[in-house]
């Protein structure tokens, strides 16, 4: 797929997530991402940030989920679609075992892993990818249709 076949305009953002959480999303097990603020729905590039959440590596749920997988940092390693953004009502059980109380839960679907990580710096909050970055990502996903 060439960049020319991708939609015009502001249709995709980058989201930077510390490892091992990004890899847990790629496995399909972690279907939500916890954030301090609400996000809009739509497509996102999954960027593995430069930092690793070392204490998370000792959590049994995380360890089982990422077992044997490489924890790439500082690169886009997949794409996903945010289909919903919500907070659990006070006093209710979490929406998934990955949900954190008091956070906004980005519901992720249509997760697709890249064969080769695309190195790039990320940033806090949603960020706009460059056309060159999009070309490198979607070259690896020839059947992708937003």
Write structural notes for this entry:
The chain is built from 3 helices and 5 strands. By secondary structure, it is α+β, with helices and mostly antiparallel strands. It has a 5-stranded mixed sheet. It starts with 11 loop residues before the first strand and ends in a 7-residue tail after the last helix. The mean pLDDT is 93.
Could you spell the SSE succession in H and E letters?
EHEEHEEH
Low-confidence parts: none
The strand line-up of the biggest sheet is 1-3-4-5-2
Computed CA radius of gyration, to the nearest angstrom: 15 Å
- Count of runs of 4 or more consecutive helical residues: 3
What secondary-structure arrangement, pairings included, does this model have?
Elements lengths: L11 E8 L1 H6 L5 E4 L6 E11 L7 H7 L8 E12 L17 E16 L11 H9 L7
Parallel strand pairs: 1-3
Antiparallel strand pairs: 2-5, 3-4, 4-5
Task: Quickly describe the structure.
This protein is of the alpha+beta class. 15% of the residues lie in helices and 35% in strands.
Which structural traits does this protein have?
alpha+beta; 5-stranded mixed β-sheet; 146 residues; single chain; globular; 3 helices
């Amino acid at each position: 797929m060439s960049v020319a076949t991708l939609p015009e305009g502001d249709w995709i953002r980058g989201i930077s997530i510390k490892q091992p959480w990004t890899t847990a999303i790629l496995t399909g097990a972690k279907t939500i991402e916890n954030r301090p603020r609400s996000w809009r729905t739509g497509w996102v590039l999954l960027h593995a940030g430069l930092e690793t959440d070392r204490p998370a590596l000792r959590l049994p749920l995380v360890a089982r989920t990422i077992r044997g997988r490489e924890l790439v940092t500082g690169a886009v390693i997949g794409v996903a679609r945010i289909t919903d953004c919500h907070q659990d009502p006070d006093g209710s059980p979490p929406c998934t075992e990955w949900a954190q109380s008091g956070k906004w839960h980005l519901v992720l679907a249509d997760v697709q892993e890249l064969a080769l990580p695309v190195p790039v710096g990320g940033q806090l909050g949603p960020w706009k990818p460059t056309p060159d970055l999009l070309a490198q990502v979607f070259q690896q996903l020839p059947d992708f249709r937003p």
